[in-house]
Amino acid sequence: MELLDIAFQPIVNIHTGKIYAVEALLRNFRDIGCKSIFEVFDMVYKENLLYGFDLALRRKALKKFSKIKNFENLKLFYNLDNRLFEMHNFAPGNTSEILKDLNIKQETICFEISERHEISDKSGMERTLQHYKNANFCIAIDDFGVGYAGYKLLFDSTPDIIKIDRYFLQNIDKDTKKKQMVKSITHLAIELGIKVIAEGVETAEEYLTCKEIGCNFVQGYFVQKPTVDVNEIQKKYHHVIDIIKEDKRKRKGNNLLKYLDKIEPLRSKSSMHKVVDYFKENNNTPMVPVINNNNEPVGIFYESQIKDYLYSPYGMSLLLNENKETSKLKNFIAKCPSTDVRSDISTIIELYSKNGDTNGIIITQNAKYLGFLSASDIIKLMHEENLIAARDQNPLTKMPGNRIVEKTIATISCDKKYLFCYFDLDNFKAYNDKYGFRNGDRIIQLFADILHKHLPQEYFKGHIGGDDFFVSSQDETDGYQQIRNLIEEFENQAKTFYSQEDRERGYIIASDRDGLQKKFELLTVSASLLYVNNVDTSQFSNHINNILSKQKKLAKSDKTKIVASSLL
Fold first, then answer.
1. Phi-psi map region of 110: left, alpha, beta (phi>0 left; psi -120 to 50 alpha)
2. Confidence at residue 65, expressed as pLDDT on a 0 to 100 scale
3. Which domains are present in the chain?
4. 100 burial class (0-12, 13-18, 19+ CB within 10 angstroms)?
5. NCBIfam families annotated for this entry (predicted)?
6. Cβ–Cβ under 8 Å, residues 145 and 164
């Protein structure tokens, strides 16, 4: 044990870059003849020494953790080999003794349960996890999604935290399948009142994608590699904060704070006397948020849960009998979804819509309780968002309008490869003049439908106005062939909107801008493509617009109807 050392890797709040916790990781295992951490645990497991070894390691990790500056405000994530629960000498209670010896709070430690090994006594493991939860230990499921029974464990034990495995996060910014899967896992967890850590994040792009999806915390080389030097653990990670500020600059703020109800919460260790007194003093309040000693939300207490006690002959006596386990506040706490105050309004609305039986959502700041957003206030927020969206939509196609298009160009990340494309319908004014506005609107809607059909959902698609459209994409493919295909389909379908005579002739007679009669070919569409890489679009948005506009004129006379260039 003396040869082994402990390294710590920080876990930070994804919205602030401030440290939330550290994970303890075993180091110097090669000094005892092992090639990996897993080999160490396999060795002691085979010798039936796993539990004793783990207890000694637990003490070593906690002792070193207590040397981190301001450790009192942090959590320590400690990995439990789930084979511990099979050991003949396994006995709950030893961790509390270690914590007491080192003067560390119970809530400080978070046990990570790995799905790496399948165990025979799953019911015993679930009972032990429940014991840890009852003792105010935080429980996290590590490597979520790659083990044997993750969703079952999620359902049966309801952990406080899940850590999404690196497998799902690697290149998530480029992989729509991974993004959708992680989004589903994250939203399910949050709906159940479970926090989510994105584990193994290595790039700024992965970080921002996890933030966009709704993860609460992040861990990985992008933040900091594991270190054995406790002095290297920082309170804030400024390179992360810089990324957050840049992302925040690009996004609009939300109006959440003006609706937030800062309900005074109850502590999870409050007596039932205090609970009853709370509702007597606040008789118009049907519920109250509950927090732990670290000011982290643990759920909601509903007054309706104790009404049967209050109105039965001996109910009040039973409820207030603190010697009864059933009379503890923790037994009445209901899970409630929570999210950070900096979350997008769309995330909050989606959370609420998937939890129809909840009275609202708990709002946090730096993982600490901030207030409560009621169902009625979420509906008001939703109404505000709908009004804003309606103002920014093109009324005909219901696509984002010119203001959003301009903002999209100005806020795209400067360190990624993007495709921008302007579309302009050729000879549309002549068609509109001859066939009327109603048919002109049908042509506009036709092109909008073809855009949605040929370009993936991940593409941003906007309707600038009139017969001008815009798309942008971070797709790995160059998009050229897809655009070529949609141009061809539009030209073929647009012909059906002419009379048979005009189709056979191949042109129409209409007035030009000077009022002179002339021939106009049938409707086509021109496309101006621009590939952008490592360019700060916020600084060069006008330049980009000028390039696209000039190319659009060239595309009208090009037989392919497409002109493309690069800005690298």
1. beta
2. 96
3. 5-251 (3.20.20.450), 257-383 (3.10.580.10), 393-567 (3.30.70.270)
4. exposed
5. GGDEF
6. yes
- Which residues does residue 463 pair with via DSSP β-bridges, in sequence order? 469
- Do 210 and 200 form a contact (C-beta atoms < 8 A)? no
Q: Where are the alpha helices (DSSP H) in 89-121?
A: 94-102
CA–CA separation, 280 vs 276, rounded Å? 6
Q: What is the dihedral angle through the alpha carbons of 448, 453, 459, 460, rounded to the nearest 10 degrees? A: 20
- Report the C-alpha gap between 119 and 123 in whole angstroms: 10
Collapsing DSSP to helix, strand or coil, 418 comes out as strand
Rounded to 5°, the CA angle 130-187-155 comes to 25
- 231's tokens: 């002095």
- Angle between helix 94-102 and helix 50-65 axes, rounded to 10 deg: 20
CA atoms of 195 and 296, how far apart (whole Å): 11
User: What distance separates the 2 farthest-apart alpha carbons in the chain?
Assistant: 98
Burial degree of 468 (CB within 10 A; 0-12, 13-18, 19+): middle
Q: How many residues does this entry show for the chain?
A: 568
The span from the CA of 436 to the CA of 428, in Å, is 11
Q: Give the 3-state secondary structure of 492-535.
A: HHHHHHCCHHHHHHCEEEEECCCCCEEEEECCEEEEEEEEEECC
The answer to whether 210 and 203 have CB atoms below 8 angstroms apart is: no
Q: What pLDDT is attached to residue 87?
A: 85
Tens digit of pLDDT for each residue in 44-89?
Answer: 999 999 999 999 999 999 999 999 999 999 999 999 887 887 888 8
One-letter amino acid for residue 7 of the chain: A
